[in-house]
Write a structure and sequence with these properties.
two-stranded antiparallel sheet, about 35% helix, 3 domains, elongated, single chain, about 150 residues, alpha+beta
Length: about 150
């Protein structure tokens, strides 16, 4: 059966379900497929360079500079500062973190409290231990009193 190679376009005598004419074309097809799979797995993100402030596109979650020049400048600044940079990298595709509202109610004692993180459910460790350890409720209540 004569087929046309999907890479180079040459006609060739196909065996079974071959779609390329040579091992070289098969390798090129594998590279293209791998690239397509990588693009699907790691979507393109728009980030802001921590050195110059320009926006750039990348597929990496770890990349923070737009160019090798900015990377060198960042490393120089990093060595001078002697500590990690406190600049937050903003990725367009990620949602902004939610801030605590201060309206949480303790599930154990019912007291209103300002949470350290949005999903916090107890006003103190004592309430958390009381809530999850019923046998300890009496012992903790005797030691610490009411909330």
């Amino acid at each position: 059966m004569i087929k046309t190679c999907v890479i180079c376009g040459k006609e060739f005598d196909a065996h079974n379900s071959a779609i390329t004419c040579s091992p070289g074309c098969s390798i090129e097809l594998a590279k293209r497929n791998k690239k397509r799979q990588r693009e699907a797995k790691y979507p393109m993100m728009i980030k802001v360079c921590v050195t110059c402030g320009k926006e750039f596109q990348t597929r990496s979650n770890h990349k923070i500079n737009c160019s090798p020049e900015c990377s060198k400048q960042y490393q120089r600044n990093f060595k001078i500062a002697g500590r990690k940079s406190s600049i937050v990298i903003k990725t367009v595709t990620q949602p902004a973190p939610t801030k605590p509202t201060g309206k949480n109610v303790c599930q154990c004692c019912g007291k209103h409290f300002t949470p350290a993180y949005p999903t916090e459910k107890f006003c103190s460790n004592r309430c958390r231990f009381q809530f999850f350890s019923p046998p300890l409720r009496m012992a903790i209540g005797k030691l610490f009193g009411a909330c």
